[in-house]
Design a protein that fits this description.
By secondary structure, the protein is mainly alpha-helical. About 55% of the residues lie in helices and about 5% in strands. It is built from 7 helices and 2 strands. The structure holds zinc ion.
Length: about 150
């Protein structure tokens, strides 16, 4: 049996559940949290099962996406070769699940493009000064911004 990793964690969880089930409830001191409370605290720490499932799905999807499009779109647009490490949502999804999972609206980028160029583009977009299509890191506006920021050493 594995002593660490997800399997060990699963086994530890099972044996914990078994111990709690065996223990007569009368032996539980009044100040101790109930199983339900413990379970809720555990969920708060690790996220609910649904959130964990969501994270696993996202991790798989982003890996697949980056394997197919391994270069930063914004760097590529100005002739630079930089690995993409972030899968960015072209239009901010705002928690909308349909928009979140729309792979046609994903773009792979480097951290600099995500943190610097994309943030500025999104600010302009939020103020109504930029069209949604220009949020793509290979749009004319994004390319101009990339060049300007790079030449300023940002
Ligand atoms: Zn880049």
């Amino acid at each position: 049996m594995a002593t660490h990793g997800p399997d060990a964690e699963k086994h530890a969880g099972l044996s914990f559940a078994w111990d709690m089930a065996k223990r007569p409830s009368a032996f539980r001191p009044a100040h101790q949290p109930t199983r339900q409370e413990q379970s809720r605290q555990y969920d708060r720490r690790r996220g609910s099962a649904r959130e964990r499932g969501y994270n696993v799905r996202w991790e798989k999807a982003r890996r697949t996406f980056l394997a197919r499009a391994p270069l930063c779109l914004g760097c590529e647009a100005v002739g630079r070769v930089e690995p993409a490490v972030i899968v960015d949502h072209v239009i901010p999804h705002g928690g909308d699940s349909e928009r979140f999972w729309d792979t046609g609206m994903w773009q792979g980028c480097c951290k600099w493009h995500h943190d610097v160029v994309k943030q500025r583009l999104e600010d302009l977009f939020a103020r109504g000064s930029l069209a949604a299509a220009s949020l793509r890191l290979d749009s004319a506006e994004a390319i101009a911004m990339t060049r300007a920021l790079r030449s300023n050493g940002l």
